[in-house]
Amino acid sequence: FPSHDKGEKIVDELLSHGLVNDPSDFYSLQAEALLSLPRMGTKRVTLLIDAIKASKGRPLSRLLFGMGVRHVGEEVSRILARRWPSLAALRAMDWLNAQIDLPQGVGVEIASSLSAFFVHPGHQRMLDRFESLWASPSAGQDLQAVDRAAEGSEQKVQEGLPCASRYPWLRSRLPAKLSGLKVVITGGFVDVSRDELETFLRQ
Fold first, then answer.
1. Which pLDDT belongs to residue 174?
2. Which three-class secondary structure state does DSSP give residue 93?
């Protein structure tokens, strides 16, 4: 929905009528049940159902971020999804094992939060349902190729991103090595979006 406030009100209404108890319940909502709610006409119901269907195609990192695991933000979610490309793989990890080979950017504190989240009895039903929707890649899939496609080639960075061509000074001011740096995007911008800048910097 265009308005964030409207989305929150709809969630509150679904909760108050017992149609959802956790986020996974959104994927079993039926149009008939939604139409029985006050102020939920055919158009609003169609928008909601379509948005829920579309969310199934989003990457695992978006699901991880959306579940609200403590200390797991957008970047950590991407790191986790790249190393463990399915919810089943993430749930199977022994996060408290001191010998675990954690990727850069994921420390002991984050591992402890993941462990607490995945073993919590109240989360099991939700995780079971999400696991069937965000399954692992097909057998034999080259995950390194997936990484390369996600990150983009240097050619795409130089020629394909609008902000790179509009703001050549931005590239000249970037250090040669970005690995390990934390970049914060803040302030106001003209003719360029935060998402565009974020994509440029990540690639």
1. 64
2. coil
